[in-house]
Specification:
CATH topology: YerB-like fold
Helix content: 10-25%
CATH superfamily: YerB-like
Distance between the termini: 129 Å
Number of strands: 20
Number of helices: 5
CATH architecture: 3-Layer(bba) Sandwich
Largest sheet: 12 strands, mixed
Radius of gyration: 38 Å
Structural class: alpha+beta
Strand content: 25-35%
Length: about 350
């Protein structure tokens, strides 16, 4: 009986303890919800302006552009004149036929000013259409009064050795008339207020390497053969090694007075109808001119490829606009340019 009583007492104590524990356990009561709002500080500053690189207007090449006029210089291209001085530094070189079936250059300088250029010769009527869009300086040795007066009606400032303008001189190593040379810096010093600023761009340039019209739309080519007049047949050959078009003339490579091979990033061929300008040279030889107002066909060569283009020039002083096969403006690669003016119907250009 005693054992049973003790067992009952232990059970009773356990029940009491369990009851106490149950009474001490409480269900938590949720408190009010708390919302935390993040602190946001609005940035009211303007986004940074995109960095647009400055480029030289006539080449599209990036650089620290200097505000100065472009100088177009009439350069001789006979056998007695070669090798010329400073052609390798020109931003743009235009080649056109003059009387007696020889060619001359209009070399345009803006981004690079070599200390000496030459030999410098006389102007022709076609120079008005070539150089007028630049609105800068045109340097030449002289010219017929009628042609000089015609050029004086353009937006250009004329600088002539015959007129006594500074910067012209004759070198002793060549005989006249192949010995007139000039200083570009001295020419620029004479620019008046209307002709002191940088030129507008003429051709359009691709924004990135490899994106020019010829490289995107053209076909591979190794050479361009030109027939500008009997005995005037310059050639351009693509160099994979140098990634340039290299010029040849007469029987061999065309070089400058420094021995540097004449080359171009872009070669632009423009076909234009030739006609008698109405001016006569020695022995009554007619001075030719080209119809460079209107439109015509051409070829753009860049990056080892060529693409057909249509050129348009609305007025004498407006730039040449090139349009590609897609109807859009044909862009060139940043770099120097040689423009070959092919006189029709006698002249021709062959891409091979």
């Amino acid at each position: 009986m005693r054992t049973s009583w003790r067992r009952q007492m232990r059970l009773a104590v356990g029940v009491v303890a369990a009851t106490v524990l149950v009474g001490c356990t409480q269900t938590p009561v949720p408190g009010p919800a708390e919302t935390i709002t993040p602190t946001v500080i609005a940035d009211k500053s303007s986004p940074p302006e995109p960095v647009v690189p400055t480029v030289w207007p006539l080449t599209g090449v990036e650089g620290d552009v200097v505000d100065r006029p472009a100088v177009a210089v009439k350069i001789e291209n006979t056998s007695q004149a070669r090798p010329q001085t400073g052609l390798e530094n020109a931003d743009v070189v235009w080649e056109t036929i003059v009387e007696f079936g020889v060619s001359r250059f209009v070399a345009v300088y803006h981004s690079d000013l070599p200390p000496e250029v030459g030999p410098i010769r006389s102007i022709r009527p076609v120079d008005a259409k070539v150089a007028s869009p630049l609105g800068g300086l045109l340097a030449f040795s002289g010219g017929q009064d009628g042609i000089v007066n015609y050029l004086a009606q353009t937006p250009l400032q004329l600088l002539s050795e015959d007129a006594g303008d500074r910067g012209f001189y004759r070198i002793r190593s060549r005989s006249a008339p192949h010995n007139v040379y000039g200083s570009l810096e001295t020419f620029i010093e004479q620019a008046d207020a209307r002709h002191a600023s940088s030129p507008p761009g003429e051709f359009e340039f691709a924004a990135r390497p490899g994106r020019s019209a010829a490289e995107l739309q053209g076909t591979a080519a190794s050479e361009i053969r030109l027939a500008l007049a009997p005995g005037v047949s310059p050639r351009w050959a693509w160099s994979d090694e140098r990634q340039l078009w290299l010029r040849s003339e007469a029987s061999g490579p065309a070089v400058s007075a420094t021995g540097q091979r004449l080359s171009a990033v872009n070669v632009v061929v423009l076909e234009a109808v030739a006609y008698d300008s109405g001016y006569d040279a020695q022995l009554g030889e007619p001075v030719p001119d080209l119809r460079l107002e209107g439109s015509g066909s051409g070829v753009l060569a860049t990056g080892g490829k060529t693409v057909p283009v249509t050129w348009t020039k609305t007025t004498r002083s407006s730039p040449v606009v090139l349009t590609g096969p897609d109807g859009e403006v044909a862009t060139l690669a940043p770099g120097n340019i040689w423009v070959e003016l092919v006189p029709l119907p006698a002249g021709s250009a062959t891409v091979g």
